[in-house]
Amino acid sequence: MSDDQKQMNHAYDVFNGDADGICALHQLRLAEPVTAKLITGAKRDIDLLCRFKSKEGDRVTVLDISLDSNIAALREHIGAGAVVTYFDHHNATQAFEHERLHLHCDMTADVCTSILVNRYLDGRYREWAVVAAYGDNLPQVASLMAGQAGVDELQRSELQQLGILLNYNAYGETVDDLHFHPEVLYERLHVYLEPADFIRHAPEFTLLKNAYTDDMAAMQTVQSYCQDGFSSVYVLPQQAWARRVSGILANKLSQEHAGKSIAVLTAKPDGNFIVSVRSGLPDSKPAGAFCSGFSTGGGRRGAAGINHLAEAEVDNFVNAFRRYFDGAGKEQVCNER
Ligand SMILES: [Mn+2]
Q1: Residues 6 or more apart in contact with residue 234 via CB below 8 angstroms
Q2: Structural domains of the chain, ranges and CATH numbers in brackets
Q3: How far is the CA of 5 from the centre of ligand 1 (A)?
């Protein structure tokens, strides 16, 4: 390849805007610095590979977005001659072999993308993977890794807080609901080698901490719409704070009530709902399989969601949710919405 061609080549770093995506790219670019165009969005913006075109010799790095959800665009990039490196823990059943496709995909339940990058880098920036694992709702895995790295109890809770805050920032219907565009948050974070430095010195950390406190206070006022011993359904109001906290509420409830399945419905400005589902029995009743029954649904065994649920479909959804996760037709009285 001539020097002229080399200069015309571009690098693209494509990453989910949540804690896992940001910490995965951060580790990778600490180890292998590259000036790349950043392609990211809110946590739910997972169709990122179709947002740009590449050409022969371009380098595309993809982090923490499902291969299956991006398969058409992935084939286009490969077909155009780009070299693609892909790290992810979501569905990759349509993965294929190609000399220009470097796959690091692992769909097992106890990994996140930052853990896969940490493995690839032989544990070089392990604490960032711990942050990501806490943020990606893998607290047991995160604590285990922190223990192996000799991180003490206090530091561990700080890493957990950072993971939760970075993850919190990515939740919203669009990037307009977020405190920081994830591209900006990544750039601010990327100047810090250690999580502790970001925690001590970054104004973004303080802002997120205060905003999170306010949103959590608002979240405490939310009552369940329906619940029994096996499942709970929550319906949140049509406000930005509610769109930011819905996923966190779902994670919090699933941690506090092990074995119980959770659905959180959040009203969008157009009156339809976004739905977060957490399975209390991810092996026998995977959340992803349930959500895939809806035209805009999908996800993993433990956590899944539906992008658009019409207002008129809410009661049907509640019934289907309870049939699937409770396994019984027991009648249940729901509160007023
Ligand atoms: Mn992830």
Answers
A1: 222, 223, 224, 225, 249, 253, 262, 263, 264, 265
A2: 3-211 (3.90.1640), 224-326 (3.10.310.40)
A3: 35
User: How many whole angstroms from 167 Cα to the centroid of ligand 1?
Assistant: 10
Cα(113) to centroid(ligand 1), Å: 5
Helix or strand or coil: residue 106?
Answer: coil
Q: Compute, in angstroms, the gap from residue 100 CA to the centroid of ligand 1.
A: 24
What pLDDT is stored for residue 269 in this prediction? Answer: 85
Q: What does the pLDDT read at residue 254?
A: 87
pLDDT category at 332 given cuts 50, 70, 90 is: low
Write the DSSP symbol of residue 69: G
From ligand 1's centre to the CA of 25, what distance in Å? 12
Ligand 1 centre to CA of 288 (Å) is 15
This prediction's pTM: 0.83
Q: How far apart are CA 322 and CA 320, in angstroms?
A: 5
Task: Indicate if the pLDDT at residue 69 is higher than 60.
Answer: yes
User: What are φ and ψ of residue 129, in 5° steps?
Assistant: -70, -35
Residue 210 Cα to ligand 1 middle (Å): 24
What does the pLDDT read at residue 58?
98
